[in-house]
Amino acid sequence: MVLTSGASKEFGSNVHVVISGLTNTYSQYVTTFEEYEVQRYEGASTLYGPHTLSAYIQEFRKLGAALINGRPVEPGPQPPDLLDKQISLLTPVVFDSTPSGAKFGKVKSDVALNSTFKRGDMVTVTFWSACPRNDLLTEGTYALVEILQGQKTWVPAYDDDDFCLRFIWSRPSKLSPQSYATIEWRIPRSAVSGVYRIRHFGAAKALLGSISHFTGSSSAFVVA
């Protein structure tokens, strides 16, 4: 209403309202006064009290009016930075290592040579790895299935966003600096026939604290 009723009439009726229901962020849930009073899940997760929605409406009206009138908006108070007050009970990564003769990313348990799988089969490969907390790879992936195009070009087909691909990390013992990653690929019914391989990406921490990235690849196999 603020955008369509401004004095300039700049927007007119050409306004599209998009409701973006984001949760689990700084604000958490924003419910109506009545829903807050009931105190079910959403109301109990509205962190700033029963009038949170009214406060949002008030501030968005100010922003809308400033937008259509071309007025600057003073920055409001910033949320407190409490990072230096937080504690973690999660044991930090001291360092990662591999058995003698094995490098990070080396295959520990591979597919059989010249193997062929059908759709619906499970392909399992295990790599010598490192703790995933060294790098969360938020712009990448820990696991990847690639398909061969032509004679030399490997193209990504599935990654750990896909339900058919699972990344499982574990240690041989709790206090061991060694670890391995098992990647399981349940071949989808929609997978095209071809030559595939499984790749693993990770990051290892040295004893002095430096982080180095690595990758590993399984042997090629056929999906028929």
From TrEMBL:
Free-text remark on how the cofactor is bound: Binds 1 zinc ion per subunit.
Pfam family, one: Ceramidse_alk_C
Domain Neutral/alkaline non-lysosomal ceramidase C-terminal per the UniProt entry, residue ranges: 60-223
Binding-site positions, Zn(2+): Y29
Top-rank taxon, per record: Eukaryota
Predominant location category: endoplasmic reticulum
Gene3D superfamilies tied to this protein: Neutral/alkaline non-lysosomal ceramidase, C-terminal domain
EC number: 3.5.1.23
Cofactor dependency: Zn(2+)
Class of this enzyme: hydrolase
Alphabetic keyword roster: Endoplasmic reticulum, Glycoprotein, Golgi apparatus, Hydrolase, Lipid metabolism, Metal-binding, Secreted, Signal, Sphingolipid metabolism, Zinc
Subcellular location: Endoplasmic reticulum; Golgi apparatus; Secreted
Gene Ontology biological process: cellular response to oxidative stress; ceramide catabolic process; long-chain fatty acid biosynthetic process; sphingosine biosynthetic process
Domain Neutral/alkaline non-lysosomal ceramidase N-terminal, chain residue ranges per copy: 11-58
Zinc as UniProt keyword: yes
Catalyzed reactions: an N-acylsphing-4-enine + H2O = sphing-4-enine + a fatty acid
GO MF entries: metal ion binding; N-acylsphingosine amidohydrolase activity
Family statement drawn from the similarity comment of this UniProt entry: Belongs to the neutral ceramidase family.
PANTHER family per record: CERAMIDASE, NEUTRAL CERAMIDASE 2
Name assigned to this protein: ceramidase
Source species of the chain: Salix purpurea
